[in-house]
Design brief:
Blueprint: E1 16-21, E2 28-34, H1 37-52, H2 60-76, H3 78-89, H4 93-116, E3 121-122, E4 133-141, E5 144-148, H5 156-168, E6 172-175, H6 182-193, E7 201-203, H7 209-216, E8 221-227, H8 230-237, E9 245-249, E10 254-258, H9 264-276, E11 286-292, H10 293-309, H11 328-343, E12 347-350, E13 354-355, E14 359-360, E15 363-366, H12 373-376, E16 383-389, H13 392-400, E17 404-405, E18 407-411, H14 415-424, E19 429-432, E20 448-449, E21 452-453, H15 458-464, E22 466-474
Parallel strand pairs: 5-6, 5-8, 6-7, 8-9, 10-11, 10-18, 11-16, 15-16, 18-19
Antiparallel strand pairs: 1-2, 3-4, 4-22, 9-21, 12-15, 13-14, 17-20
Helix pairs in contact: 1-7, 2-4, 2-5, 2-6, 3-4, 4-5, 5-15, 9-10
Length: 478
């Protein structure tokens, strides 16, 4: 496959190009064009002109046919898409394959949403004011969608932002992460091959943050979808034009509470997978494990055994289980945070080593300080922290006592304990006897507090990108 993509804004010439490098060996693996301020204006003008002219809106049968062809093309290209995602994102082949299959399923999910999409009847003739009236609603696209995405799932995140926009009938401009734009540009290429008019979906890479802000703050946007860091997301939201709706998906420092009656043989492999999958670069990765004091040492030791047994290395090697961090400076940052935690009193049970410039050893820390960065902030690296607790109320309080809140988990054989944690954990979802990173793409997926705004998941994003428009008919016959 050609990994040097052309400009995807119709009528625009290349302003410059961004080389994309592999996080494993820093070799150039492809390139995408960049746009400047004039290019951003051109993209916005094209997208808005489509939305403003209702005769150019895509009818539902055409949208369904485009999505059907898109899924079919992706299925044919599964292996190529898997290799591309692994090369640019660093997720091992086995996990990148799962991501691609999820992305394909996401297209079918959006088709199902569109097939079931309907308005509703609003009750009338209930009093004198509403007599002789019939009211109903239909769905319309909300407007131009701008999607800015993260690096950690280079294809599936784009599917979650772009495909609901296409399904809902919205023109969309999508800016992928600078580290992983190839899968995004590939998906847009596939959509066009499937019959989507070029103007309906434009992948762009801005030459600077200022140009990105130009896109975000434009009053012609109907909806802004952001996946990435909390610092950037909340800043951009503060600059939205009046009337622009938005959804923000950030990260967290997901807690797992392990009760003394938990089945450790069943749970610990799941927790290890949830913490070390994609080198911990997942917004709901297991990061903080609160284990009852009677089992805390055992939990830390056994998690360390899992950590040390994992094969870290080249994501393109089929035997690799944990790949590189997205860039060398992230290896340095994770290393710094772990070293600081040890200096502040944590016990390094295993790991704590940089494996060259690209990888960091899967690490288990025992009893870091509550004030340590690893306890308070999202580490976004292959690090699990284990803390001992004496009573479940204390564990829940400590799990809740940070600025971020997303998914959480409780491991127990006691129904009352599970329900207590479900009721009292500050989380949008609580997994019982599972890890915090569980997700299927049709379920609600939402960060609370500083972890986000709105609800993700393809059906929920599809709804967000539509307007429910009401018609009221007055007639003496009614």
């Amino acid at each position: 496959m050609n990994n040097d993509f052309p400009m995807m804004v119709p009528g625009l010439d290349d302003n410059g190009r961004l080389n994309v490098t592999s996080p494993w060996d820093q070799k150039v693996i492809g390139s995408v064009p960049t746009i400047n301020a004039e290019g951003a204006e051109r993209a916005l003008e094209i997208a808005h002109s489509i939305y403003a002219d209702r005769s150019r809106w895509l009818p539902v049968p055409q949208r369904l046919e485009i999505l059907k062809r898109t899924a079919a093309i992706m299925e044919i290209m599964t292996e190529q898409l898997t290799q591309e995602a692994a090369r640019e994102g660093g997720k091992p082949l086995i996990d990148s394959k799962v991501e691609v299959l999820r992305a394909i399923d996401g297209v079918y999910n959006a088709m199902d949403c569109l097939k079931a999409d309907a308005g509703r009847e609003i009750p009338m003739n209930l009093n004198a004011a509403s007599s002789h009236r019939l009211a109903m609603t239909q769905k319309e696209p909300i407007g131009v969608v701008l999607a800015i995405s993260a690096f950690n799932h280079p294809l599936n995140l784009i599917v979650h932002q772009v495909i609901p926009a296409i399904a809902s009938g919205c023109p969309v401009i999508v800016k992928p992460a600078e580290d992983t734009p190839l899968s995004c540009f590939r998906l847009v290429t596939i959509l066009r091959e499937a019959g989507l008019p070029e103007e309906y979906c434009m992948a762009v890479m801005t030459e600077s943050m200022e140009v990105a802000e130009q896109l975000v703050t434009d009053a012609r946007l109907g909806f802004f979808s952001f996946i990435g860091s909390a610092k950037v997301g909340w800043m951009l939201r503060s600059k939205l034009a009046p009337g622009t709706r938005c959804a923000l998906e950030h990260g967290g420092a997901a807690p797992v509470i392990i009760a003394e009656d938990a089945d450790l043989d069943e749970m610990l492999p799941l927790i290890a997978k949830g913490g070390f999958y994609h080198a911990g670069q997942v917004c709901v990765s297991v990061q903080r494990v609160f284990a009852h004091r009677s089992i805390a040492d055992t939990v830390a030791a056994r998690l360390a055994e899992f950590a040390s047994s994992l094969n870290c290395g080249d994501p393109n090697d089929e035997t690799t289980e944990v790949g590189p961090l997205i860039r060398p400076r992230e290896v340095e940052r994770v290393s710094t945070w772990v070293n600081e935690a040890v200096e502040e009193g944590a016990t390094l049970v295993t790991g704590g080593d940089k494996l060259g410039d690209a990888c960091y050893a899967c690490t288990v820390l025992y009893e870091p300080s509550a004030e340590s960065k690893v306890s308070q902030l999202e580490i976004f690296g292959p690090v699990i922290c284990v803390y001992a607790y004496d009573d479940i109320e204390d564990a829940v309080t400590r799990a809740n006592d940070i600025a971020f809140s997303f998914q959480a988990a409780i491991a127990t054989s006691n129904l009352d304990t599970a329900l207590y944690c479900y009721k009292n954990l500050n989380a949008s979802a609580v997994m019982v006897n599972d890890h915090t990173a569980f997700r299927v793409d049709w379920m609600p997926f939402a960060g609370l507090k500083q972890s986000g705004l709105g609800i993700g998941g393809i059906p929920y994003t599809f709804e967000d990108m539509q307007v429910e428009k009401m018609m009221v008919i007055r007639s003496s016959i009614l």
